[in-house]
Amino acid sequence: MASPLRILGRASSINVRKVLWTCREIGLAFEREDWGAGFRATDTPEFQALNPNAMVPVIVDEAGVLWESNTICRYLAGKHGRADLLPTAPRPLAEVERWMDWQASDLNAAWSFAFMGLVRRHPDYQDPSRISASAQLWNARMAVLDGQLAATGAFVTGLDFTLADVVLGLSAYRWTMSPIPRPQLPAVAAWMARLAARPGYREFGANGTP
Q1: Which of 89, 79, 92 lies closest to 19 in space, CA to CA?
Q2: Has domain 90-202 been given CATH number 1.20.1050.10?
Q3: What CATH number matches the domain at 5-79, 3.90.1150.10, 3.40.50.12710, 3.40.30.10, 3.30.1180.10?
Q4: pTM over 0.85
């Protein structure tokens, strides 16, 4: 019998939670190990042999080691034949991957300074003007998502739930949990209510951890 999937990373990490939620959607058994802030250090030769970037999550299965959270989610969905989460037709696949890439680049870049300063309270992120600019950009990016959700009327890429909803659902929850002024985004709010019907979101998304 094959060994369960190993997931290396602390449960509070937003990127680890993407993978955990994806596993729940697939119905995939896993064993999670605590690595990262407050747990086993990732800046050691032992961990960097798995991921030279010293970041979580990392997974290990019978095929070997894999890192980068969005890539891991795509890999697991593809490996287990979940075309509902990750379509196989070129255009629907591109739509899901576009929004996953947008989450990892444009959206993450927007919230980084405000989140690190206001939530993590990191001393290097305390410039009030930069916090304000980051919060404003974060809101602007979320308004882009609101426009997309208003157009689909359901989930990020259309009527069906996909991996794009996993990665963006976690980001949206972080936005609602962060102490910044936020505009009313009705399509985002309605979408998050739809996500709340999913056990994986309740366990790993809207679980009180920003």
Answers
A1: 79
A2: yes
A3: 3.40.30.10
A4: yes
Domain assignments of the chain as residue spans, ordered by start: 5-79, 90-202
Helix (H) or strand (E) holding 71: helix 69-79
Structure tokens at 115: 């989140």
CA–CA gap between residue 161 and residue 84 (Å, rounded): 7
> Tokens 């209510």, residue?
193
Q: Which of 179, 174, 172 is nearest to 195 (CA)?
A: 172
Distance, in Å, from the CA atom of 85 to the CA atom of 26, rounded to the nearest integer, reads 9
- Under the banding of pLDDT at 50, 70 and 90, the label for residue 2 is low
pLDDT at residue 1, rounded to an integer: 58
Q: Of 63, 8, 65, nearest to 32 (Cα)?
A: 8
